[in-house]
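Notes to self after the call with IL:
- keep both proteins in one doc
- input above output, always
- annotate only the second one for now

Protein 1:
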Amino acid sequence: MHISSTDFVNEGRILYPIGKISAASAWHAGPVDASQGDWRAVALQELIRRAEDVDADAIIDVNYVTDGIAPADESGVSLRRVLATGTAVRLADLA
């Protein structure tokens, strides 16, 4: 699976986009930053699995953001997760 944070891949010409895909790490208590490697890796692995499910050759425009929910009252715990998004595509050289 080819991964790119831009709208192109060096490994081939994009034949057609399949569609937007997204995946997330599990929810975690406390601060979670999208730049933290472990949470990004988990979200990326799930994103790759989803791309493989739709027979994609690559994922372009990959982006990471942190998502969270606040507790209903002050005794609760804030929950956070890392979301990975991108566009699944087929490559002309591999189709």
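Protein 2 (the one to annotate):
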Amino acid sequence: MAYQNEAQLYNCMQDLFGRVEADLPQATESLVKAKLCIRFNISSPEAMLVVNAQKRPLQIEYGRANSHKPDLDVDVTSEALHQILLGQLSLTKAVGSKKVKPKGPIWKIMALADLFYHAQKIYPAIYASRV
């Protein structure tokens, strides 16, 4: 299992998104242009993450209580998310194999491709420092 508990997952994601926003702002450009709000329903451990790119700055909400209605809901296991962020699993293959299950206009999930591509550059070091 990639994450032992919800707190570890949230801490890792907070570090990741903080570094992406600070060091790689171009990574969120596709999401902001599409004005998307995406909710990740993560399992094993159970967690929820909302990425709201309807306006700058990007807003990330951690936890089950959130105030935004998403344009896209994405069901994903923490292991599949971890593999995507390590670059071991492409977003396209994850969707095709149902490891990532979008609910809503499926084409909108491709706006995440840039974010994941840039995040893959820094995620391995962030994850290694958290486990």
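Annotation: The beta strands are 37-43, 47-52, 59-62, 72-77, 100-103. The chain has one domain: 6-130.
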